[in-house]
């Protein structure tokens, strides 16, 4: 899949708590920036988020570059759907503007299409636009589980899988 661009700053706040984290060491040469997590903290939270989704990705590694807001994903996904869900889960988080997808897939399949949610969108409206049938919204919802918990909770700028 390569690189994916996302809208930074509008994604869900990443509150996943992976492994217990040690308090950050403050440098005396730089002033502390309040409310801005370190690159390692963001990477750890993204890793915790993906582990919590239980997508079955083996040897998962998440790296984050705070200068470029780039998250890099490495490992082996069991399916194309799991790979795409991992990329979207990370990209739809605050602080991430771009995802470098270096995940491999155990069984390669064709890639899904993607849709960026606009203001005023809902899954029925998207289904009508994509499939010509608003009642197929459930197909989009199912393709984005566990990223979506409720078909009514999407936000502008969010990127969804369209099977």
TrEMBL record:
Its main location: cytoplasm. One of its GO terms (cellular component) is cytoplasm. Keywords: Cytoplasm. Residues 14-37 are annotated as: Disordered. Coiled coil: none annotated. It is found in: Cytoplasm. It comes from the Bacteria. Pfam families: BON, LysM. Residues 35-107 form the BON domain. Residues 113-162 form the LysM domain. PANTHER family: POTASSIUM BINDING PROTEIN KBP. This is Potassium binding protein Kbp. It comes from Acinetobacter qingfengensis.
């Amino acid at each position: 899949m390569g690189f994916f661009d996302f809208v930074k700053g509008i994604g869900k706040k990443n509150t996943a708590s992976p492994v217990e984290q040690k308090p950050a060491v403050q440098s005396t040469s730089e002033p502390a920036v309040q409310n801005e997590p370190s690159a390692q903290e963001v990477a750890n939270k993204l890793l915790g988020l993906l582990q919590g989704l239980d997508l079955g990705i083996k040897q998962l590694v998440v790296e984050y570059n705070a200068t470029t807001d780039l998250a890099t994903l490495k490992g082996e996904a069991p399916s194309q759907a799991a790979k795409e869900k991992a990329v979207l889960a990370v990209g739809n988080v605050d602080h991430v503007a771009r995802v470098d997808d270096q995940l491999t897939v155990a069984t390669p399949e064709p890639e899904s299409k993607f849709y960026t949610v606009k203001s005023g969108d809902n899954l029925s409206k998207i289904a009508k636009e994509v499939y010509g049938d608003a009642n197929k919204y459930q197909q989009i919802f199912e393709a984005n589980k566990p990223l979506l918990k409720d078909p009514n909770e999407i936000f502008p700028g969010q990127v969804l899988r369209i099977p």
